[in-house]
TrEMBL record:
It holds the Pfam family TPR_16. One of its GO terms (biological process) is ERAD pathway. Transmembrane segments: none annotated. InterPro entries: Sel1-like, Sel1_AlgK, TPR-like_helical_dom_sf, TPR_rpt. This is Sel1 repeat family protein. It comes from the Bacteria.
């Protein structure tokens, strides 16, 4: 600090020679003391020191004091400083003062100033004077100015002179102009993919934003997400919001949430709507509801209908129905079909059935709404309407709706119709439809068909189906091994009828001790049939023992045998288990009415590829 103070004191004592005063201003400028620098430059400039005049022009352009800038640049130009004309041209070009820009560029373009020639051609292009634009751009391009090659390529592209455009893009790429390489990459994409990728990789190395972005998209299209991240990252760090969004979305899908949040927030700082929406989704999935609301609200303010629907969903779950309805209605106005169903669910949950019906009807091409309409009309016992809506859903492929119609017709004793719809459900592997249809076939003694129906549900642990499979193998196929297998399956779940039938089967197989075991098990469970059969087993065993003793002439056994009646034990009798269905067939069956969130939107990556750059560029770097 002491050294700095010493320097400032020394500066104040510098004599008034314009060159020395200019140096004083330059030192002030380097120290960030702009007002002191201006004072020094003015003192020197008024003594006709051209460098100070030019410096003042530069400072005033930066401060956007354009009248002052023009005054000092003009003075510098009159004193022989040609670059001042170039700067004045650039200043007017950026202010859309193209006629003034032409005036200043022309002063030095004719002297061979390449950047001025390029900028003059660009200005004529802006004014749609393509002939003069071509003249000046060609002059600069033929002197190997890369940016002029690019601009001339743009001119020829606009004029549909494709071969000439390609020629100058090619020349500019040799001169290392990145925009020429970029346009070439797009032009050659279909014809020479290898060359295109080579150009894009060169653009990646030099940090060309659009080139990096397109390369990222191409990698993402091939599902090469790690490579895509690499290319997006470069353009993202250069401030490209779409690159920030894409890399965030990749991290999101890979569940690298802290990285996803970081890049989403970068893009949100540039007001990227999709980043707000996706960050809302991320926080919603992580159950950070307040943050989810914040970002959905931001995206909803950008008029994104999916965000409005999701924001409404959070209010729905909070039971803030007024806010939920507000955002659902906004989403509906914007064309969100999901919101129609969600607001219907909200009204249904609040027992406003007529309103619920009215919204489901507006969305009646959706299977889920058809099912809900069927459910409501069934609850209202309006079976005719219920059948109409379930039938629509059934025809659209919903197996549960086919099953429900089958059940309604069964209640109405319409056997043929119920069979028709149970068959439809069974064809789609609907478990309970198979169980119903299997029972029908069993009752009609169509045992092969019954077996086909019960096999699937039995393998999904439906007790009734397992028991009936045991009965079929036991009684009709005489396959004791398979009968035992299925009875045991049902027995393990407490099916008393299977326990009884196992006892009967073992008696038929003369496996009395095994039979006794099952009858005892049934007795413990309070089954009178098992108790009766166990008594029969004991009676038979007693009779056999008395008979053996009678043969040996033991005591009064002969008299006992003579008075003991013969009992006709029917081991072919079997029990059928009560009809029972699979508890949960469909994940959506009897689901609570909860809001549907739109967590994915279709994004066509190919449509995201950026096209050719057709905006000409001025060169504001001075000739060295």
């Amino acid at each position: 600090m002491k050294g700095t103070k010493f320097s400032i004191r020394k500066i104040r004592n510098i004599p008034n020679d314009p060159k020395v005063v200019y140096a004083k201003g330059s030192l002030y400028e380097k120290m960030g003391k702009i007002e002191q620098a201006i004072d020094a430059y003015k003192q020197s400039a008024l003594d006709e020191y051209v460098k100070s005049q030019y410096k003042l022009g530069e400072i005033y352009v930066e401060k956007e004091y354009y009248n002052e800038a023009e005054k000092w640049f003009n003075m510098a130009y009159k004193n022989g400083y040609e670059d001042a004309a170039f700067d004045l041209g650039n200043m007017y070009y950026k202010l859309d003062g193209y006629e003034y820009a032409l005036y200043w560029y022309e002063k030095i373009a004719s002297l061979g100033h390449l950047q001025a020639q390029n900028n003059l051609g660009t200005t004529h292009f802006k004014l749609k004077d393509y002939q003069r634009s071509e003249k000046w751009l060609k002059e600069a391009a033929n002197s190997n100015l890369g940016v002029a090659c690019f601009n001339l390529g743009v001119l020829y592209t606009v004029l549909n002179r494709k071969e000439e455009a390609y020629e100058y893009y090619k020349k500019g790429s040799v001169l290392l102009n990145d925009d020429c390489k970029y346009n070439l990459a797009i032009l050659d994409k279909k014809n020479d993919e290898k060359y295109t990728m080579s150009l894009y990789k060169q653009l990646y190395k030099s940090g060309h934003i659009d080139g990096c972005f397109n390369l990222g998209v191409l990698m993402e299209m091939e599902d090469n997400l790690d490579e895509a991240k690499k290319y997006y990252e470069k353009s993202a760090k250069l401030g490209d919001e779409k690159s920030q969004y894409r890399i965030a979305y990749i991290y999101d899908r890979q569940e690298s949430l802290s990285d996803a949040i970081e890049y989403y927030e970068m893009a949100i700082d540039k007001n990227d709507m999709l980043s707000k929406y996706r960050l809302g989704n991320l926080y919603n999935k992580e159950n950070d509801i307040e943050k989810a609301k914040l970002y959905y609200q931001m995206s909803a303010n950008d008029n994104m209908l999916e965000a409005k629907n999701n924001l409404a969903g959070l209010y729905f779950e909070d039971e803030n129905y007024e806010e939920a309805i507000k955002y659902y209605e906004e989403a509906i106005i914007d064309g969100c079909k999901v919101a129609l169903e969600n607001i219907g669910d909200l009204y249904y949950k609040n027992n406003e059935i007529e309103k619920a019906i009215s919204y489901y009807l507006k969305n009646s091409t959706y299977i889920s709404c058809q099912i809900k309409l069927g459910n409501i009309y069934e609850e209202l016992e309006n079976l005719e309407e219920a059948i109409i809506w379930y039938d629509k859903a059934s025809k659209a492929g919903d197996a549960q709706s086919s099953y429900k119609i089958g059940c309604i017709y069964e209640k109405l004793s319409n056997k043929e119709k119920s069979r028709e719809y149970f068959h439809l459900g069974a064809q789609q592997n609907h478990v309970n439809s198979k169980i119903h249809l299997g029972r029908m076939y069993f009752e009609e003694e169509l045992y092969e068909d019954a077996k086909k129906m019960f096999e699937g549900p039995a393998n999904e642990d439906n007790i009734y189906s397992q028991h009936i499979m045991g009965v079929l193998h036991d009684i009709y196929y005489k396959d004791s091994d398979n009968a035992k297998y299925w009875y045991e399956k049902a027995r393990s779940k407490g099916c008393i009828e299977s326990i009884y039938n196992l006892g009967q089967l073992n008696m038929k197989l003369n496996e009395d001790l095994e039979a006794e075991k099952y009858y005892k098990e049934g007795l413990k469970l309070g089954n009178k049939k098992c108790e009766y059969m166990l008594a029969n087993v004991y009676y038979k065993r007693s009779l056999d023992m008395y008979s053996m003793l009678a043969i040996e002439g033991y005591d009064n056994c002969k008299e006992i045998v003579e008075i003991m009646p013969d009992i006709d034990m029917n081991f072919n009798e079997f029990l059928l288990a009560p009809f029972s269905l699979q508890e949960k067939v469909d994940e959506n069956e009897d689901e609570e009415y909860v809001p549907k969130y739109i967590l994915e939107i279709k994004e066509n990556l190919e449509d995201m590829l950026r096209g050719m750059k057709l905006e000409m560029e001025i060169d504001d770097e001075k000739e060295s």
